[in-house]
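Late entry, evening session. Most of the bench is empty. Finally got around to the prediction I had been postponing all week. Sequence below, unchanged from the version circulated by S.P.
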Amino acid sequence: MQKRTCTRKKPDGDSLDHTIPCLGLIDEALDMQRRLIGYVGFHEYDGYIPILRLRSMLLRPADELRTVIYCLKTGYGYHFISFEIMNAESRKRWAEVMLKIFPGDYLQMDKEAKHRVLRLSDKGENPPPRFLFATGVKPMRPISLGHVQEYLDKSLIPEEALALCDGCKFVPTKVNFCVYLAKNKRRNQK
């Protein structure tokens, strides 16, 4: 397991006293020799949306991007994931489509945000993300087996959720992790 330190949130001048280390998975898909072959789709949204509305909101980007989107609940919002291996152009399109519907509170695709990282661990009082649902159409591109396996191994998605990818090509990949500092918000804190 290769760990990196990476910047995820916008710098806001807060002291490190109010941050906690979290384990994150990087969006890079690497071949077995650890060469970059593409990216998976990662996006985060902080805010509450009723689940039926959230399901309907994800139909458009899933259809437009021709992919399956996995939705996980976090303490303050949602993680959206596509396990398809995308090239740089597809990755940028993913970010643009997702940002139109779910504005992010952190650096997305500029030069300062080389990596997209989603949390796998606890974050203070907040448990790891938990699976809500998957929606979309059968992906056309290969699937990153390394990313899927990490989410399965950590029980963040159930195996049944992969049914939407039946018949897809799963490519063996390596993944990178990083430890990053996140704000230590409390649930009753605004």
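Two things to note before I forget:
The longest helix spans residues 51-65.
The chain has one domain: 3-183.
Will write this up properly tomorrow.
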